[in-house]
Design brief:
The protein has helices at residues 2-35, 59-63, 190-193, 460-464, and strands at residues 40-48, 51-56, 71-72, 85-98, 104-110, 116-122, 126-133, 143-145, 169-175, 180-185, 199-205, 215-224, 227-230, 237-239, 246-253, 259-264, 268-273, 276-277, 287-291, 296-302, 309-313, 318-322, 335-336, 358-367, 370-373, 384-386, 391-398, 404-408, 413-418, 421-422, 429-430, 432-435, 440-446, 452-457, 468-473, 476-477. The protein is mostly beta strands. It is globular, with a radius of gyration of 24 Å.
């Protein structure tokens, strides 16, 4: 009897293993199917059972809706103006890059180097960028991260344009309306192409400075094929600075990780987040700050009379050395910066009187191989559909799966609250919000830029595993398609 019971137990265990493996394999292949659909129109929706969903080819015709009746994203361009034109050329190509740690890396780069050339313009300039693809077989695009621009210029393969194939060219043109710290990267197979090096800094200088400083430096953090770099250096980045000088450091996180950054050797202020100035930012002394993927932090500091200032992420081995002289002391007791009560409120803040036209919910989570938004992944996630002019409140909850820096294209949103507590300090305007597990934020979006806009986790691996959806305006269409048929796979 014991022998039969033992055999029965073994059989049950083997059956359970087979069922588990079958379920795992089924989930995996379901995810691959969603990652690489045949063809999806990200701009066509119809309502079903009170919700919205993306229409696959043929569905719109069945519903009797005319795509021609909608306004095309392709037709939404920068209007004619007499603004000064600044023209740049970016050529995407495969190359070998010799790193300063002795490694040779096979990279995909703009103009032969990663990060690509810094693009620097002045507020109000008309920016024209000519993109050529030399030999990237999958095709490339350029997405202007954080820049508010017309839908047709957003650089998302299958939504705002087709990926640019080898030998092809695409010309981007838009007005740099908002000064600040931004960056650019390919949004075709973005999790792969950014990792391989297709990215760069984009700075819009203001016509009139809000803060006083003697010099500035742009610092781009990236992970190139697994190696962490600062402005392309594996050893660290040095900045010349004299005692007493005031410096602005524009820190850009172009990697997937969240970096815990420390500043030793001087007190500092965080004067801007995602390119947008903070009101009356206070001095920070024993504070680290966490910068999420896609985010930008602008720091203002004054050099000491003696010694260096070091900005670093010890866990990632990233270091920026400012000035010369003795090493700064590492402060033993540190607090993590939060914008929830930093700076000062503005008087007569109009946001307190807003009536919201829509209150929407986003729950970010993980399920086996996939990352989910409201329990669904990729193009199966119903889009948010808004009308131009609406005031939209979005509640974003991180329910699991690690840090999720959530990015909305084509807009700047204002953070209203964290974990149910309204912000007490300066108004905070972002395009990428770092959410950590257990956190809930409320944000306000003014629907004032008609188009079809992606919103996704900017840990691009999470986006490639399903955490990507659309923020679409009523009456906007696109002639482009996402999927293997067109070759446009923006989040792969």
């Amino acid at each position: 009897m014991r022998k039969l019971t033992w055999k029965w137990n073994i059989s049950l265990i083997l059956l359970a293993v087979v069922i588990l493996l079958g379920a795992t394999a089924g989930t995996y292949f379901w995810q691959i199917r969603l990652q690489k659909p045949l063809e999806v129109n990200m701009g066509q929706m119809h309502h079903m059972d009170g919700g919205a969903k993306h229409a696959h080819e043929g569905e719109l015709a069945k519903e009797g809706v005319s795509e021609q009746a909608a306004r095309s994203c392709k037709e939404i361009t920068a209007g004619v103006s007499d603004a000064p034109v600044q023209e740049f050329r970016l050529t995407a190509a495969q190359t070998i890059q010799e790193l300063d740690n002795g490694q040779s890396e096979k990279v995909w780069a703009f103009n032969g180097i990663t990060p690509g050339p810094e693009i620097r313009v002045t507020e109000g300039d008309r920016v024209r960028v000519v993109l050529d693809n030399q030999d990237i077989q999958e095709g490339v695009t350029v997405h202007w991260h954080g820049i508010v621009l017309p839908c047709s210029q957003d650089g998302v393969a299958g939504v705002t344009q087709d990926a640019v194939k080898p030998g092809e060219q695409f010309i981007y043109e838009f007005v740099a309306v908002s000064p600040g710290t931004y960056w650019y990267h390919s949004h075709q197979a973005s999790s792969e192409q950014v990792k391989k090096g297709l990215l760069g800094r984009f700075i819009v200088e203001p016509k009139k400075e809000t803060f006083d400083y003697d010099q500035e430096e742009s610092i781009l953090l990236q992970q190139l094929n697994g190696t962490f770099l600062v402005n392309g250096s594996a050893k660290g980045w040095s900045v010349e600075a004299a005692p007493g000088e005031k410096l602005r450091l524009r820190v850009i996180n172009a990697a997937n990780d969240t970096f815990d950054m420390s500043v030793n050797g001087a007190s500092y202020r965080i004067i801007a987040l995602d390119g947008h100035d903070l009101n009356e930012p206070g001095m920070l002394d024993h504070h680290d700050f966490n910068i999420g993927a896609g985010q930008r932090y602008d720091l203002l500091l004054q050099m000491p009379e003696q010694g260096k200032v070091i900005l670093a992420s010890e866990a990632a081995g990233l270091k920026v050395i400012v000035g010369v002289g003795s090493e700064p002391l590492t402060r033993p007791e540190r607090t993590v910066f939060t914008f929830a009560n930093y700076g000062a409120p503005v008087p007569n803040d109009s946001v307190e009187r807003f009536i919201f036209d829509q209150n929407l919910q986003i729950k970010l989570d993980q399920n086996l191989f996939i990352n989910t938004i409201n329990g669904q992944s990729f193009h199966e996630i119903p889009p948010m559909v808004v009308a131009e002019g609406e005031n939209v409140k979005i509640t974003i909850t991180n329910a699991g799966g690690g840090d999720h820096p959530f990015h909305l294209h084509g807009h700047t949103f204002r953070v209203l609250s964290r974990n149910g507590q309204p912000l007490q300090g300066s108004p905070v305007y972002l395009d990428t919000l770092l959410t950590q597990q257990g956190e809930t934020f409320e944000v306000y979006v003014k629907a004032d830029n008609p188009g079809l806009w992606m919103m996704h986790c900017h840990n691009l691996m999470h986006a490639s595993m399903g955490m990507s959806m659309m923020f679409n305006y009523e009456g906007i269409s696109t002639p482009y398609r996402v999927g293997t048929k067109s070759g446009n796979l923006p989040d792969l």
